[in-house]
Write a structure and sequence with these properties.
With 239 residues, this protein is of the alpha/beta class. The chain has helices at residues 13-24, 38-49, 62-68, 97-115, 119-125, 145-165, 183-186, 190-198, 208-219, and strands at 4-8, 28-33, 52-56, 77-82, 128-133, 170-177, 230-233.
């Protein structure tokens, strides 16, 4: 039976790098994204590795997740990577309810909406790997009351599931990216980027591949005594 891993928010960026890395390691990959372009992204990955499929789903909706995953043999799900996330950065005094609600639902509610579909089957299998993508912003960041709150919630969610599910052979960990090269950081003025890099002991900006490497490690069968941790991918920067 092929070991299948759900990767949310995997049409591009960090999520896509995670999906590609895991596909290269011969896992079956189910790429999930709000953008229906994920179907073509999965076809491209499948043409190279032969083990990927795509599902278009709004993971901020529990009902959408129930419907999207209803046709999957849940017994085949080896692991879940909860990566889907958005940001709507603005100072709190100017933040609208819609900006708050959208980020909390996509970045935090999605953790429940997706993971809940598969926990019963993982318990029956006596095995599972759950990796949740948080952010260095979980400690709080100006202009990110919504995003920081959601990413802090991811930490609490991770540690609770580690405690509840460990006796069933299921691990749950969080990967915490630091300053990572993304379309958002690419738009920063060069001087601001340089100031961030100065604070990083390894003296470079992180890549999506760096994050994928961490996820790969936590997915391996021999990481079975590692659960409830925050694995910081930040080049040594204090997060």
């Amino acid at each position: 039976m092929t070991k299948k891993i759900i990767v949310t928010g995997s049409n591009r960026g960090i999520g896509h790098s995670i999906a590609e890395r895991l596909a290269s390691e011969k896992y079956g990959i189910i790429m999930v994204d709000y953008d229906n372009k994920v179907i073509n992204s999965a076809k491209t990955l499948n043409s190279e590795y032969g083990n990927a499929e795509g599902i278009q789903c709004d993971v901020s909706s529990y009902e959408a997740c129930e419907n999207a995953f209803s046709g999957i043999d849940k017994r085949e799900i080896y692991g879940i990577v909860n990566n889907a996330g958005i940001n709507r950065d603005v100072l709190f005094r100017n933040m609208t309810y819609e900006q708050w609600d959208a980020v909390i639902k996509t970045d935090l509610y999605s953790m429940f909406n997706v993971t809940r579909q598969f926990t019963d089957s993982m318990i029956e299998n006596k095995f599972g790997r759950i990796v949740n993508i948080s952010s260095a912003s979980w400690n709080g960041n100006v202009g990110q009351a919504n995003y920081s709150s959601a990413k802090a919630g991811v930490i609490g969610f991770t540690k609770t599931l580690a405690r509840e599910l460990g006796k069933y052979g299921i691990t749950c960990n969080a990967v915490v990216p630091g300053f990572i090269k993304t379309p958002m950081t690419d738009q920063m003025p060069e001087k601001i980027r340089e100031k961030f890099i100065e604070k990083i002991p390894i003296k470079r900006i992180g890549t999506a591949e760096d994050v994928a490497n961490a996820v790969s490690f936590l997915m391996k069968p021999d990481s079975d005594y590692i659960s409830g941790i925050l694995l910081e991918v930040g080049g040594g920067m204090i997060l």
